[in-house]
Amino acid sequence: MIQLLYSVIFAEMALIMTLLFKTPLRKLVIMTLDRVKRGRGPVVVKTVGGTLFIVLLSSVYSMLKIQQRTIEAGAVNPTDQVLMSKHMLEASLMGFLLFLSLMIDRLHHYIRELRLLRKAMEAAKKQNRGFEDGKNANTDERKGLGDEVATLKTKIKKLESESETKDKEANAAKAEAEALKKQSEGFLLEYDRMLEENQNLRNQLESIDQSDGKKNM
């Protein structure tokens, strides 16, 4: 019994050392403990722990009985002394074993909580990074839109300037056309006047010719 308790205690100590340091073996131990805590595992562990606790109480009760018997006898019996030492050693080993089991359970629980917390922090960091990337992308997009708006404003100003120039040219061409129209109207009036004078001259020449013909007769 004592050899078995020592073996279990040393195994638990090795397990605790494995859980304390980050090694590839720790992942295997954590996976094994995860499986043990699933299904019927917790019931079996509680049953074994309860049995050990009952045996521990039995050893303590035996020690109390031996102590009471020694007090009543008034002398120390060598057999009772050996049994007292045996029960005390067994009770100490079982108490230490239960304590180490509790330590393993709590270490496993805290390691799992730490892993979940790290995963949550990594997810939050990724989300934060994604938000910052989106924000930077929006900033770049806004900057690109601002540059595009500035380019469009420059083009609009250029087109307005070209439009004003073309309007001035059109107004100048219109004024020139009006001047040419007035000039052509003046030419037509002059032409009509010259035609009228030419016709008058012809009429005068015809009347002169007629008067000369009458004189010759």
UniProtKB/TrEMBL annotation:
Highest taxon listed in the record's lineage: Eukaryota
Descriptive protein name: B-cell receptor-associated 31-like
Provenance organism: Melia azedarach
